[in-house]
Amino acid sequence: MNYQWYPGHMTKAKRMMQENIKLIDLVIELVDARIPLSSRNPDIDELSKNKFRMILLNKSDLADTRYNKEWAEYFKEKGFSVVEVNSKSGAGLKSIQGAVQEVCRDKIERDRKRGIVNRPVRAMVVGIPNVGKSTFINSFAGKACAKTGNKPGVTKGKQWIRLNKGLELLDTPGILWPKFEDQKTGMRLAFIGSMNDDILHMDELALELIRFLQRHYAGVLENRYGLEETVAEDGKDALGMLNRIGESRHCYSKGEELDLERAAGIVVDDFRSGKLGRITLEFPV
Ligand code: G4P
């Protein structure tokens, strides 16, 4: 299968982000904790040069706790401030404020020495589509905050959300597009639903997912679908597993034939919604 991404307004989005990035001190980058590298666009490093950096491992509730910790360490070693969050429930959001103060310490200190006190850190949220940017802004900013409106020196139309005395957030997130040359990255984006499903072959996608689970999360499929564990000769009978899932879920088409496409849809949906449990699809090296 050839995984592709058709960006609608890639150039426009990039230009807007370049404009907005000039206005801020801190880039808050959301990644999907299940694929923290594949859900990043590496151009962000160039775009964010000389800015303070924070990575939020979002959807951490869907990812393997063990690897959440490992990924947090991985990015910390690269100089990022890192917080594991679940923007949907709000878990982890409370730690962000402290982390912002910590990562922007130099700026705050520099301001203080110049006699500038209480100049808030200005931040922008960025990430690829569907990573949870809007959910994050809504949960993090909550209802308590007020929009500060336009200010002199700020491009007309920009809205800043004042979270507290120390932090303001641009209300429009920066949208990056996924970027990949290798098909593995494309496949991982497809697993989490960040590709248009219409251009995918669901059965091939499900088979890849089943292979991955059989290799790294043994027993997960058997548990979910109430199947006995069986081992094929080569130990990786993904098609046999998809067939058995189809049978157990009564995915039959009119002619009593197994409808593998439907069975595939069930497996992929169950993964995306967390029904297969907390699963991480790529591991730090
Ligand atoms: P975007 O702005 O970056 O494009 O993403 P958006 O906030 O629209 O979120 C995309 C989907 O991810 C939404 O689901 C949202 O609820 C879900 N989501 C965001 N953050 C988290 C998280 O930390 N954990 C989990 N489990 N889900 C998260 P949806 O199905 O499109 O909408 P809804 O049915 O949840 O409302």
Question: How would you explain this protein's 3D organization?
Answer:
There is one protein chain. The protein has about 280 residues and is of the alpha/beta class. It has 2 domains: about 10-170, Rossmann fold (3-Layer(aba) Sandwich), CATH 3.40.50.300; about 200-275, Conserved Hypothetical Protein Ylqf, Chain: A, domain 2 (Orthogonal Bundle), CATH 1.10.1580. Helices cover about 40% and strands about 15% of the residues. Strands 1, 2, 3, 4, 5, 6, 7 and 8 form an 8-stranded mixed sheet that branches. Helix 8 (about 200-215) crosses helix 11 (about 260-270) and helix 10 (about 240-250) packs across helix 11. The relative contact order is 0.16. The chain binds guanosine-5',3'-tetraphosphate. Guanosine-5',3'-tetraphosphate (G4P) binds near residues 88 and 130. Guanosine-5',3'-tetraphosphate binds next to helix 6.
Main pleated-sheet profile: 8 strands, mixed
- Taken in chain order, the helices and strands follow as HEHEHEHHEHEEEEHHHHH
Give average pLDDT, whole number.
88
Beta-strand portion reads 5-15%
For the secondary structure, the number of strands is: 8
- Rg computed from alpha carbons, rounded to a whole number of angstroms: 22 Å
What is the CATH topology classification name of the largest domain?
Rossmann fold
Give start-end ranges of low-pLDDT stretches.
149-155
Q: Identify the bound ligands.
A: guanosine-5',3'-tetraphosphate
CATH homologous superfamily title of the largest domain = P-loop containing nucleotide triphosphate hydrolases
Large-scale geometry: elongated
CATH architecture of the largest domain: 3-Layer(aba) Sandwich
Assembly type of the chains comes to single chain
- Based on secondary structure, the structural category is alpha/beta
